[in-house]
Automatic annotation (TrEMBL), chain A:
It comes from Baryphthengus martii. Its main location: nucleus. This is Ribosome production factor 1. Residues 47-230 form the Brix domain. It comes from the Eukaryota. May be required for ribosome biogenesis.
From TrEMBL, chain B:
It is found in: Nucleus. This is MAK16 protein. Keywords: Nucleus. Gene3D superfamilies: 3.30.390.110. Coiled coil: none annotated. Residues 3-98 form the Ribosomal eL28/Mak16 domain. The gene is Mak16.
Amino acid sequence: APPKAIPKTIENQRVYDETTVDPNDEEVAFDEATDEFAPYFNRQTVPKILITTSDRPRGRTVRFCEQLSTVIPNSHVYYRRGLALKRIIPQCIARDFTDLMVINEDRNVPNGLVLSHLPDGPTAHFRLSSVRLRKEIKRKGKEPTEHVPEVILNNFTTRLGHSIGRMFASLFPHDPQFTGRQVATFHNQRDYIFFRFHRYIFKSEKKVGIQELGPRFTLKLRSLQRGTFDSKFGEYEWIHKRREMDTSRRKFHL
Amino acid sequence: RTKTQNFCRNEYNLTGLCNRSSCPLANSQYATIREEKGRCYLYMKTIERAPFPRWLWERVLLSKNYEKALEEIDENLIYWPRFIRHKCKQRFTKITQYLIRIRKLTLKRQRKLVPLRRKIERREKRREEKALIAAQLDNAIEKELLERLKQDTYGDIYNFPIHAFDKALEQQDAESESESDAEKEEEDEEDADKREFVEADDSELSDFEDMDKLETSSEEEEEEVEQNVNRSKSKGKTPLKGPARRKRPYIEIEYEEETEPATRTKTA
């Protein structure tokens, strides 16, 4: 009998992306040492995050914001009563915020996320889907504590994915408190980033149990801008162009 | 259509309702206010120009100043019926108010509506679901955490003594081997155990107390480890298998009792 063939999956058949990061790539390492996240990775800045919504947030979005702020340490939720983004950005910089997250909502459901690194950092615009609030997740855990969670970033292979991954990493303080036993995971699979927040416990040397607490959501990158948020004059590093990029089922960009 | 009145579709209508008094077709002397590109005009229609449809409506530009425009309306519609004059002024007021609102809103941030495409939305949703299934998040997270444990990122918080570690490894290997056999075999063994135990009970009643002593000394560790491992398994796997798994310890303990004397006799 012929030997059992390896099943073809989309991950196996993935079109080779030329911007895949090699772990030993010097150019990439040099870039990362000099780009906007350098101060964070050199532990000069402590992340401080402002979470806000679009106008008139509805109940679900408000609750989602609150849960997000419990998950991400050192984050504050401020409501927006008609304030223009262009004006709050200088204010945020003045007050020492490092990141700004705007959750856009549509018909009582959050569906967009704009994440911008503040002192003139890149801005990423995501489509937010499949948001589960804490009470909708089937588990019996308590709420996340104030400990700094660990961060797991899975599968961010290309250059673009790398920069997005670093953006996520810069949201969390650099030194996780292992006593908290909490972990936040950003898992990239076929251009969808799944966020989960778990509490883990090591039962033995080879077994770990995880319990899901905290909200979960999925993100899909729509665009990445060089500077801070500016819809008209911003310099786009990457936009998702549907016609060009969605042609092949096996080609992914993140 | 309201309950009592229809709406008039004629663009030169003053009030918007279809009445005898406010129809531009029915009345040969009529006036309206219309606005184009932010400027308001007063349109008038008189009997003298009735046979000339081209010059029927006369247009007068009103000034941007609100009061001056009202005066202009008055002086143009002098000697006209009160109803038309009044309605013209009302309409003019309304129009200027909404023009002001438009100008104010354009200064503020506008909400851009981007239409979703249903096909694309459905496609994205389906792809997301498939990606989720392919991702196997729980496994990935567990693997990553174990990796980090191995690479000692956690330092010395988690102390797993090597003795227990090795034992756990052996347990795991033993169990994985026994599990890899078909479950039917295990079931047979369990049934056989039951039978054996019953027979043994009958014959070895006198030695039961000794058996207990033997149990307490050497079997505690194994029992506990077994139970812990089983409990951890039951937690990790679906709750359905929970009760089924829990039955195991009871039966396995009996199994252990059986082998204990066997091994002892062999070693002895």
